[in-house]
Amino acid sequence: MSQETYELKAEARERVGKGSSRELRRNGMIPAVIYGDKQAPLSIALSTNEVTKRIHAGGFMTTIATIDVGGQKIQVLPKDYQLDPVRDFTMHVDFLRVSGNTEVTVDVPVHFENEDKSAIKQGGVLNVVRHTVEFICPANQIPEFITVDLSGAKVGDSIHISAVKLPKGVRPVITDRDFTIATIVAPAAGVEEEVTEEAPASEAE
């Protein structure tokens, strides 16, 4: 399961727009919106320091939070956040209202284990095709990560989603194929072949 829930204090925003947002950021606050659950969107302002701390702690997008807006506590899941491309600080956050029976779509990180029990120990190279996988799951059962067991994997093997034991209620968004998460490839040889194949094209130019 994902990390424990946390709470953020927020203020309701009566004014919205670029001017209002700039003023908030100058005062150490981040504009945000809570939407979903068949209710009207709610514009709020959050502490920049608190939100940044939560983003850097990891698991921000897969952890349910409680937002206290003037005493009203709302359970939410972060769905998106925007960073300033130059100064790299948080500009805006979107939150989705959730309840116990809410299903959400989330990107879950992939972790690998038992590399020492696979061909990687003899020099094989792990080629990660998907660092995250998109799942549909109950909002209160979002896995912090999924684990791929590499025990016995040989050079040339592909590890598919069907080989991963998923928590109850968690299912991949892609259902029309048994997609690949990673492969084990031979070292160096593959690189040499690529260079050999590309050389004639370079010479032709």
TrEMBL record:
Q: Where's the Large ribosomal subunit protein bL25 beta domain?
A: 103-187
Organism superkingdom: Bacteria
Query: Which UniProt key words apply to this protein?
Result: Ribonucleoprotein, Ribosomal protein, RNA-binding, rRNA-binding
Indicate whether Transcription appears among the record's keywords. Answer: no
Which residue stretches belong to region Disordered?
A: 1-22
Say yes or no: keyword Ribonucleoprotein present.
Answer: yes
The record's listing under InterPro entries reads: Rbsml_bL25/Gln-tRNA_synth_N (IPR020056), Ribosomal_bL25/Gln-tRNA_synth (IPR011035), Ribosomal_bL25_b-dom (IPR020057), Ribosomal_bL25_C (IPR037121), Ribosomal_bL25_long (IPR001021), Ribosomal_L25_dom (IPR029751), Ribosomal_uL5_bac-type (IPR020930)
What are the Large ribosomal subunit protein bL25 L25 domain coordinates in residue numbering? Answer: 8-95
A single GO CC term for this protein reads: ribosome
Give the Pfam families listed for this entry. Answer: Ribosomal_L25p, Ribosomal_TL5_C
Describe the protein's quaternary organization and the partners it interacts with: Part of the 50S ribosomal subunit; part of the 5S rRNA/L5/L18/L25 subcomplex. Contacts the 5S rRNA. Binds to the 5S rRNA independently of L5 and L18.
**What family name appears in the similarity comment?**
Belongs to the bacterial ribosomal protein bL25 family. CTC subfamily.
Known role? This is one of the proteins that binds to the 5S RNA in the ribosome where it forms part of the central protuberance.
Database matches in HAMAP family = Ribosomal_bL25_CTC (MF_01334)
Recorded protein name is Large ribosomal subunit protein bL25
Q: Which organism is it from?
A: Neorhizobium turbinariae
What lineage does UniProt assign to this protein's organism? Bacteria, Pseudomonadati, Pseudomonadota, Alphaproteobacteria, Hyphomicrobiales
